[in-house]
Amino acid sequence: MSKRLEPYFDQELTGEERRQVDEHLRECRTCQESFKLMERIRGAIKQPVDGAVEKEDFQLMWQNIQREIRLRESPSWLESIRVWLDISPLLQKKVWIPALATMAILVFVTVPILFKKSPSPSVLSVVEYVDSPTYNVMVYESEKPEVTVIWLFEGQGEELSTS
Amino acid sequence: MAYDEAEVISRCQQGDQEALRAIFEQYQKKVYRIAYGVVRRREDAHDIVQEVFIKLFRSIKNFRGKSQFYTYLYRMAMNTALDHVRKMKRTRSSSLDEEGSPQPADEIENRPDQILYQKELEEKLKEALEKLPSDQKATLIFREIEELSYQEIAETMGCSIGTVMSRLHYGRKKLQELLKDDLKRDF
């Protein structure tokens, strides 16, 4: 009968089984004590819970839940970067450290070469040419350095002087 | 407006916060009772309920409807509360004297000796519950606080009815041993 006492206490017995335990309980002092003890444990567990539920502010609780969900849905820009760094498989593997170092070296080496100003050869340009029966004169000029060349020809292509 | 659970769950799975609110209003007290039953402290129970519903909102997509929704939610609540206790044990600093300590049933009896007795009993009960294995404690709370049937507890915990009965029996027996002097006192 003692095996049925707990299911009886928990209201898990059928009508007939309950009736039998009821009858037994009226006579058995040990089972009465056990039943009373189970009731006390139940009361001790349950009573403070009922009291706490009555005091609780569930509206405030809901507001906290809502705020927390919103916060997690729209993280700050700093958080977004952190999350992106966390989820990027390439960055997770730390391969970016040697990759960035290589890129930096390449930039330092190539940029000075690409942007180096090489001195351009001074190109002389003909600014004037005079053709005459006695002398032919040709004037050349260059901008940098500022040079003027005057070329005198005599007769058929014979050079006289330059200055 | 009537609470249509299947419809509300479906909306919640699509990220509808109003649907989550409907679920919260339906289950807030039940989840709170489970949480309080485990931690026996209002502030902790409050935090656990919040955590449970935030978790639920993120994970409800995984609920396929193969079991009753309450078993899914109660299991989540119980696991969250038990995890909370484990964390608390690691960083134990709470005291019954501080604000928010277990609430004696002073709403029921106002006699000073009765209040003192309830407070002492609650303290001892908390200690005794902590000594129970997690599965026995969870089974006792589902039965004594939430008043679930053996069948409902078995579904929630994913075990047989026989296992539920066994856990209840040994849990009660252990509590009776630990609290025998305190429970025999009469007023």
What is the total tally of β strands of chain B? 0
N to C succession of SSEs of chain B? HHHHHHHH
From the spread of the alpha carbons, the general shape of chain B counts as: globular
Tell me the fraction of residues in β-strands of chain B, as a range.
under 5%
How do the strands of the widest beta sheet of chain A line up side by side? 1-2-3-4
Number of helices of chain B: 8
Oligomeric grouping of the chains: heterodimer
Distance between the termini of chain B: 47 Å
- Sequence of secondary-structure elements of chain A: HHHHHHHEEEE
The structural class of chain B is: mainly alpha
| Number of alpha- plus pi-helical segments of chain A | 7
Describe the structure.
Chain A is α+β, with helices and mostly antiparallel strands and 163 residues long. Chain A folds into 3 domains: 2-55; 77-114; 121-162. Helix content of chain A is 61%, strand content 17%. Chain A is built from 7 helices and 4 strands. Chain A has helices at residues 2-9, 15-27, 29-55, 58-73, 77-87, 89-92, 96-115, and strands spanning 125-131, 135-142, 147-154, 158-162. Chain A has a 4-stranded antiparallel sheet with strand order 1-2-3-4, with no helix packed on it. In chain A, helix 1 (2-9) packs parallel to helix 3 (29-55). The longest helix of chain A has 27 residues, at 29-55. Chain A is rod-shaped. Helices cover 72% and strands 0% of the residues of chain B. Residues 94-101 of chain B have low confidence and may be disordered. Chain A binds chain B through residues 6-7, 10, 12, 37-38, 40-42, 44-56, 58, 61-62, 64-66, 68-69, 72, and chain B through 17, 20-21, 24, 28-29, 32-33, 36-37, 40, 42, 45-46, 49-50, 53-54, 57, 102-108, 118, 121-122, 125, 129, 140-141, 143-145, 149-150, 165, 168-169, 172, 175-176, 179, 183.
Key descriptive features of the protein:
heterodimer, A: 163 residues, alpha+beta, 3 domains, 4-stranded antiparallel sheet, 7 helices, 4 strands, B: 187 residues, mainly alpha, 8 helices, 72% helix
